[in-house]
Amino acid sequence: MSPRSARLARLSRSVTFSACHRLHSKSLSDEENLKLFGKCNNPNGHGHNYKGRKLISILAPGIDPVSGMVMNLTDLKEYMQEAIMEPLDHKNLDKDVPYFSEVVSTTENVAVFIWDSLQKLLPQGVLYKVQVHETEQNVVVYKGEETIVK
């Protein structure tokens, strides 16, 4: 390998945050919401310990030859604190996070929120994916896709 070539590597970091929410769409009637979301439409909400086993994955331009790192983990930890933990941990997503006042607080939309929040902090082009585990069985992976062409 020549001195100018670099090896690509992915770096992942995980966090766990607790939050409550109610699945409820303002576009639907109460009856339609109950039919669509079932017990998750409970007027008093319900909670989760959201886990990111690989909550975010960074794909850097290469392993820095001087530091030997894809990204400084201390910096990544601070970005995740600001983008994820501060706005989401121990919050009622629907009442405490302005983003969810107009967006249904599904795990899919939580992943999009985290992606958008991290994009504002991380160097451009390094965020590869956000993976959110709502439960052991329910996992959402988001890679920044905005539209699906049909």
From TrEMBL:
<keyword id="KW-0862">Zinc</keyword>
<dbReference type="InterPro" id="IPR022470">
    <property type="entry name" value="PTPS_Cys_AS"/>
</dbReference>
<dbReference type="GO" id="GO:0006729">
    <property type="term" value="P:tetrahydrobiopterin biosynthetic process"/>
</dbReference>
<comment type="function">
    <text>Involved in the biosynthesis of tetrahydrobiopterin, an essential cofactor of aromatic amino acid hydroxylases. Catalyzes the transformation of 7,8-dihydroneopterin triphosphate into 6-pyruvoyl tetrahydropterin.</text>
</comment>
<keyword id="KW-0456">Lyase</keyword>
<dbReference type="GO" id="GO:0046872">
    <property type="term" value="F:metal ion binding"/>
</dbReference>
<keyword id="KW-0783">Tetrahydrobiopterin biosynthesis</keyword>
<dbReference type="InterPro" id="IPR022469">
    <property type="entry name" value="PTPS_His_AS"/>
</dbReference>
<comment type="similarity">
    <text>Belongs to the PTPS family.</text>
</comment>
<comment type="pathway">
    <text>Cofactor biosynthesis; tetrahydrobiopterin biosynthesis; tetrahydrobiopterin from 7,8-dihydroneopterin triphosphate: step 1/3.</text>
</comment>
<dbReference type="InterPro" id="IPR038418">
    <property type="entry name" value="6-PTP_synth/QueD_sf"/>
</dbReference>
<dbReference type="GO" id="GO:0005739">
    <property type="term" value="C:mitochondrion"/>
</dbReference>
<keyword id="KW-0479">Metal-binding</keyword>
<dbReference type="GO" id="GO:0003874">
    <property type="term" value="F:6-pyruvoyltetrahydropterin synthase activity"/>
</dbReference>
<dbReference type="Pfam" id="PF01242">
    <property type="entry name" value="PTPS"/>
</dbReference>
<protein>
    <recommendedName>
        <fullName>6-pyruvoyl tetrahydrobiopterin synthase</fullName>
        <ecNumber>4.2.3.12</ecNumber>
    </recommendedName>
</protein>
<dbReference type="InterPro" id="IPR007115">
    <property type="entry name" value="6-PTP_synth/QueD"/>
</dbReference>
